[in-house]
Amino acid sequence: MTDLTLATLLPALESRFGPDVKVLPSRKEVLGVVQVKGERLVEVARFLHDQGTFTHCALVSGVDWIEHIEVLYHLWSDALKGYLELTVETAPEEPHVPSVTSVWRGANWHERETWDMLGVRFDGHPDLRRVLMPEGYRFHPLRKSFELHEPEELEVKARHV
Amino acid sequence: MSEMWINMGPQHPMTHGLWNLRVKVDGELIVDADPEIGYLHRGIEKICEYRRYNEVVTLMDRTCYVAGIAWEQLYIMAAEEALNINPPPRAEYVRVLSQELQRLSSHVMWYAAYVQDIGLMTPFLYGMRDRDLILDLFQSYTGARMTYEFMRVGGVRNDVPVGFTDRCRKVMDWFDQRLPEYEKVCDNSTIFLERTKGIGVLKAADCVNDGVTGPMLRAAGVDRDLRRDRPYSVYPELDFDVAVYDAPDCYGRYRVRMEEMKQSVRIVRQVLDWLDRNPGPVLAEKVPRFVGTPSPPPGKEIYVERRGYPKGRGFSAMEEPHGEAMAYIINEGAEHPYRAKLRSPVFVNIAASKDYLVGYRVSDIPAIMGSVDICVGESDR
Fold first, then answer.
1. A70 and A97 Cβ atoms separated by less than 8 Å
2. What is residue B309's predicted lDDT score, i.e. its pLDDT?
3. Which residues contact B59 (CB under 8 A, 6 or more apart)?
4. Beta-sheet pairing, A96-98 with A82-90
5. B34 within a domain of the structure (yes/no)
C-alpha cells in the first residue's frame, strides 16, 4: 500500500475484517484505537504488519476489568510516526488470546509477562513460561483479586535442575 | 564436542546487575541463549495501583538507577495525560534539561563500565570522574545525586537555583573537551577495535522485528528517535540531530552513544539560554490537591470515587537513554491509577539476546552484553 494514511488504513481494515474489527474513538496521544475479536487477531496483526507498515510491536499488556480481561497491543509505524492501539477482550476465567509472536518476535517476552502477571494464555506462543515471578508461584499478581496487604505464601521451585 | 548449558549470573562481572544469562555452548561457540530475569522484580506496577500519582515518583527513581529522572518524567507525562493537566513552559524546559543531563550521565556511565569490561582501565576513570560533575549539577537543583524525586504532576518541584546556568555551561564546556578524548582513547586502541568491530551483529530487519530500540536500533541504521518522530515536551523547539550509524555491531552502538552525548550537550546549551531569558512558574496552578498528599495504608478503600475527577487513559512514550520507554495509565476517577503499565526498553533488548549472541564465542559475551547497556532495575521493574 503506497501513500498510506490513517484515513485509508482504518476503513481498509474495517472493510476487510467486517464485524470482527471495530474502530473505537481515538485519543490524542495515539493514532487510533481498534477493537479486534480474538479469533482474527493474528490475521489483523499480519495485515497491519505487511500492509500497514506497523513493523514494531512496542508493547503487549493487559488490564483486569473483573468482568473481562483486556489485552492491549501498541504498534509503531515508521511511516505514520505514531502508535496504534489494538484491544482484545477475553473472559476472566481461563483467559486466552492467540499469540502474535509469528508476526513480531518482539512480542515474545511481553506475552510471557502478561501471562505471568495476569494469567492470560497466549495460544501458539513458543515458550510460555513466567518471566518475572519464579516458576511455581501460585498467583498472577496484577489480577484485582490479588490484594497487596494479604500475606502470601511463597513456594519457590528451582527453575531448572 | 558435546554441548552444555552454562549460567553466567546471577552474580557475574558481565551482568552489571542481578540477572542470569544461560548460554548453551559447543566448546567456545555459543549455540543457544536463554536469558533469565526477575531477580530484581519489586512489583512496581502493582504498587502504583495503591499510590497517588506524586508518590510514585519516588518509586520511578528506583526503576532505573542510572536514569531515574527519565522514568519520573515518563510516568508523570502519562499521569498528566490521564488527568488533563498541562505543565507551564518553564517546567518543560527544566524537564528537558534534566533529561539531557541524565542521558549524558547515563551514557558516560555506560562508557566507563563498557571500556572496563573490554579491558581499558584509564577511560573507566575518565568516565567516572566526569559523571560526577553532572551528578553535582543534579545535586545542586534536586538535592540528590541519583534518586531525585523531582518531577511533579503539573511541573517540577522547584526551579534551578541562582547561578545554575553558568555552572552548567562550564560543565558543558568541559564535556566539549572531554568527549573527543573519550573517542580517541577507544579508536586508537587495537584491543577495543578488535573486541567490538563485527561482534554482536543484529541487522536492521531483526532489530525491528525483535522490538529492539534505542542506540542498538540506530546503530543498525534505522533512523528512529522518539524525540524527533513523536515529539513530547519541548523537543520540537530544540535543534538536534539523531545519531545513526551503519554498523549493527558493538562498535556501532559505541559510536551512536558518543554522538548522542554531543547532541545532549548541544540541547542542554539551548535550554540554558532559554531558561536565562524566560523566568516563570514551574508548577501548574490547578492540580487536584490529593495528587500530592500521602495515601492511607493499603486496604479495601483504595478506589475512592472523586466527584468531577476526570476518567481517562494516559499514554506516554519517550526516548530514554536505553531506548524507547512507555507508560500507560488508566484512571477510573479515583485517586490511584486503576492500572499502570511500564515498558522497559532493556526488557526487550535482553529478550532478543539470543539473536545477537549465537555464533559468537564465550569470550565475546562481556563485549556484546555490555554494548546493550543493561539496567536490571528497569527490565524487572
1. no
2. 63
3. B44, B47, B48, B51
4. unpaired
5. no
Considering only CA atoms, which of B351, B354, B357, B360 is closest in space to residue B379? B351
Check if the beta carbon of residue B3 is closer than 8 Å to that of residue B26. Answer: yes
CA dihedral of residues B151, B153, B157, B159 (deg, nearest 10): 90
Indicate which of B6, B46, B226 best probes the interface with A, i.e. most A CBs within 10 Å of its own CB: B46
Q: Which residues contact B28 (CB under 8 A, 6 or more apart)?
A: B361, B362, B363
Other CB atoms within 10 A of residue B10 CB: 17
Q: Is residue B294 part of a domain?
A: yes
The region that residue B233 occupies, defined by phi over 0 for left and psi between -120 and 50 for alpha, beta otherwise, is left
What pLDDT score was predicted for residue B10?
83
- Positions in chain B whose pLDDT score sits under 50: 299-305
Closest Cβ–Cβ partner in B45, B213, B222 for A142: B45
pLDDT for B303: 45
* Interface A-B: count of C-beta contacts within 8 A: 96
What's the CA gap between B51 and A22, in Å, rounded?
Answer: 34
CA distance A143 to B312: 20
Question: What length is written for chain A?
Answer: 161
Containing domain of residue B66, as a range?
Answer: 49-380
Q: Identify the segments of chain A with pLDDT beneath 50.
A: 1, 161
Go through the domains of chain A in sequence order and give each one's CATH number.
Answer: 6-123 (3.30.460.80)
CB contact B32 to A (< 8 Å): no
Question: C-alpha grid cell for residue B316?
Answer: 506516554
The total domain count for chain B is 1
> Would residue B232 count as lying in a domain?
yes
Residue B259 forms contact with A (CB below 8 Å) = no
- Taking the C-alpha atoms of B76, B81, B87 and B90 in order, what is their torsion angle to the nearest 10 degrees? 70
